[in-house]
């Protein structure tokens, strides 16, 4: 990983040196975890000694491994069902935690159940019937099962983990957590992880940990100071319009625009080209030769806007750019770091703008947590941006129509390649068909 903007603080010690058994060292290797992260290196030796832990750490620090590894090591010694319970504030986090337990414990046959709201209780009851070793749950749903699922109890529990305790308490899970604490043995190990030490977290800690060791570790990921990071909350329907506005404001700069799907790279490129911007897509759907062709055009300055997905952007030698736009917010926060690492390299400055719609808020908040800072808002007068709306909507409609047509044609002449050539050909054809289309005066002015 050669990104200058990505600072990874690696540890000198190995997983074996911090006390993990051979099976778990192997499991870490299988996940390509080369050395323990800071929080893992500091917390695991104490955990293996049997101490309670308070970990001040954020997502991205490797905190899940810091509690999962010692729990699995202990499970190996006395394998029993309902061995550990992890409380998580959200269903997404609960699923991620269970995935890490399963990945680390796959060679050892670790079984997990995830108990979160919004999923059928019955399905979860069946999963509990299989007597899992680890239960990962949101507090409300766990309490539901403790009250209503026949035969299910946590009376044999050996470990309790309160993950993201600050968020758990902010989400009004206090009462549910109290009730859960009453239903589990007092004789247990407890690990509490939190990004911040609030009063509520302090109170919870005093109530349920015994002589804990406190360990602090900043996120493994941080972004460089020369990178200016901004966001803009916008309704989904105005995203294209904002994208065009920002690119136009920054005309003359080199930009990378990240989308979630290959289809979107193609559609956006067509829209932008229809509006006279020099955009080119790179997507996993294109052959390697086509991708390189597109990249060369970008490097040579023939096109100054590269539209891509996360997958396509990796493994390609992409030069540093002036601006990164997250047209779609990445669902995996680490992708954000990789994306913005394309700008502000080697001491130069750069701008990253994230366009966040109503469906992407949770992912955006996770990014802020990962990088450990609140971003500033991208400044723009909405009324000014929306002056482009008609023209952008027009360009979008035409582009969608062209893609549909080309799809039908392509089915007829199977075997021809796709991607960049198509975009180029289609862009030329709608430029011609819309030579006389009316555009916003503001936009034309901005193009000059
Ligand atoms: P977490 O902070 O637990 O959410 O972990 C963030 C990410 O870091 C996850 O994708 C883990 O798979 C990864 N990770 C955890 N520990 C390590 C490690 N020692 N080396 C490399 N990656 C790790």
UniProtKB/TrEMBL annotation:
Primary subcellular site in the record, as a coarse category: nucleus
GO molecular function list: ATP binding; hydrolase activity; RNA binding; RNA helicase activity
Annotated Helicase ATP-binding domain residues: 44-215
InterPro entries: DDX47/Rrp3_DEADc, DEAD/DEAH_box_helicase_dom, DEAD_box_RNA_helicase, Helicase_ATP-bd, Helicase_C-like, P-loop_NTPase, RNA-helicase_DEAD-box_CS, RNA_helicase_DEAD_Q_motif
Helicase C-terminal domain location: 242-386
Annotated Pfam families: DEAD, Helicase_C
Entry's localization field: Nucleus
Source lineage: Eukaryota, Viridiplantae, Streptophyta, Embryophyta, Tracheophyta
Signal peptide stretch: none
Domain of life: Eukaryota
Organism: Rhynchospora breviuscula
Domain DEAD-box RNA helicase Q: 13-41
Disordered: annotated segments: 404-448
Name of the featured protein: DEAD-box ATP-dependent RNA helicase 10
GO cellular component: cytosol; nucleus
Motif Q motif, residue numbers: 13-41
PANTHER family in the cross-refs: ATP-DEPENDENT RNA HELICASE, ATP-DEPENDENT RNA HELICASE RHLE-RELATED
Keyword terms of this UniProt record: ATP-binding, Helicase, Hydrolase, Nucleotide-binding, Nucleus, RNA-binding
Ranges of biased composition (kind: Basic residues): 431-448
Protein family membership: Belongs to the DEAD box helicase family. DDX47/RRP3 subfamily.
